[in-house]
Amino acid sequence: MINRRTFLHSAAATATLAALGIPLEVIAANRVKFGKASAFSFDALIAKAQAQAKQPYAPQRTAPREILEKIDYEALGKISFNTDYALFANGPGQFPVTFFHLGKFFQSPVHMHLIDGSGRGGAAVESEILYDETYFDMPADSPARKMPRGSGFAGFRFQESTTGDQSKLDWHKNDWVAFLGASYFRAIGDLYQYGLSARGIALDVAQAGQPEEFPNFTHFYFTVPEDNSDTVVIYAMLEGPSICGAYKFTMQRGAGVTMEVETALFLRRDIGRFGIAPVTSMNWFSEAVKATGSDWRPEVHDSDGLALWSGGGEHIWRPLNNPGQTMVSAFGDNNPKGFGLLQRDRNFDHYQDGVHYERRPSLWVEPLDGWGKGAVQLVEIPTDDEIHDNIVAMWVPSAKAVAGNNYRLRYRLYWQKDEPFPSPLARCVATRLGNGGVPGQPRPENVRKFMVEFIGAPLEKLAYGELPEAVLTTSRGAFSYIFTEAVPDGVAGHWRAQFDLKVDGTAPVDMRLFLRHKDVTLSETWLFLYNPFKTRTVYGN
């Protein structure tokens, strides 16, 4: 509906956008206010990041802190973006853009820009979308009404298609990707559920004696999409005390969400743990180990394992832990084919929660250029609640990250219910721990029993009476009661390996397991980090 306020905003926007050469149908869909236009290119953005990296870090100016602090959880919950002001609400493309408001928990301003590629001489130009309180619906007494114009935004999201089946989805309420907070972003995958997050970069995660640094995406640049395209392209500037960078995101909304990321990074100072393509998730407890009565639900996690596809072609599955102390595991490799944090357990009965952990997306990272020598590093941090992201997986190069270094990287992110390049081998689907020994007899000290389940076509092909062999290794301790058996659930190709591990002391234990038959490998490799300390103190052993 056109009213006086809408008309005035439209008129102001029209003058600026017409100067940029943006099509009239976009002008009609955008009533926001713009700053002056300036030339734009990705190369120029990279050059800007490189130049800024040579200068001392200067934090961005923020809105008055006394105002931001008053926009708390309750106040922010009463603020919603008015979709009349959404970018591309009436085309071109099919995915409108709406913005998040700044507040107590997201105080760093993010500046949004619109790019038009039809400037003078065909050169692209950009113009900043200026913050104005009228873009948001809020109570008359909201503290946000005191925010200065031009304060910036907290982040943004792409809404679902305006051309899809509106009987199933309302684009005003449903979004498929969101960038919010530092360099965090996430997507819903093909099960229409948010879960784990990605980041632009991770600096000094769990680095001894060094606090973690959280650089911010400070600017985003939106390209005008093509008509009815399923792909959107945005650019971003990242900056923190130790780093500057430029990013290009090409994001496709298909059955899941696929993002191609291209970035140029420049270091201001040395970094102890330089995490590329970081993935962040939550794992409180699973079927493997949980304290009796800790929670009413059987499992609570956004991801249940780290999957690796090594440069040598090995497929590895590492179940996630909630350890008693922060643990860092490194999986050395050369030019890895990919890695990801996955949610393999898709059975609602295993969670019993209306927030639908069984629908949380998996996220797979595929390097598009050789990343050389390094390691996929997994950081597991203790947590006593589901509100904390306590898992980080990332690629860390072998070469030291020192001031003056620069990096050009390309990789692809797959947000979907399963990994995009599954192994043809049987895969691990459950890891269970219990007291070692034999029922009815005294339980031996310092012994834990493990049940590891696999399912897949190679196990279906075993002839009647044939048993797969469990091939086990450990960094310390001794195995006993090792055997394999078909899981008696009637599912073809569903087998489990059982074994006891006796180990003294409290130091962590690294174990490796796979199934084979007559020298033929049947399963991916299961890796596990066992923490005797936590097992004793929390679960009794």
TrEMBL record:
GO terms for cellular component: outer membrane-bounded periplasmic space. The keyword Signal applies. InterPro entries: Gal_mutarotase_sf_dom, GH-type_carb-bd, Glucan_biosyn_MdoG/MdoD, Glucan_biosyn_MdoG_C, Ig-like_fold, Ig_E-set, TAT_signal. Keywords: Periplasm, Signal. Belongs to the OpgD/OpgG family. Residues 40-529 form the Glucan biosynthesis periplasmic MdoG C-terminal domain. It is found in: Periplasm. This is Glucans biosynthesis protein. GO terms for molecular function: carbohydrate binding; catalytic activity. Pathway: Glycan metabolism; osmoregulated periplasmic glucan (OPG) biosynthesis. Its main location: periplasm. The keyword Signal applies. GO terms for biological process: beta-glucan biosynthetic process. It comes from Glaciimonas immobilis.
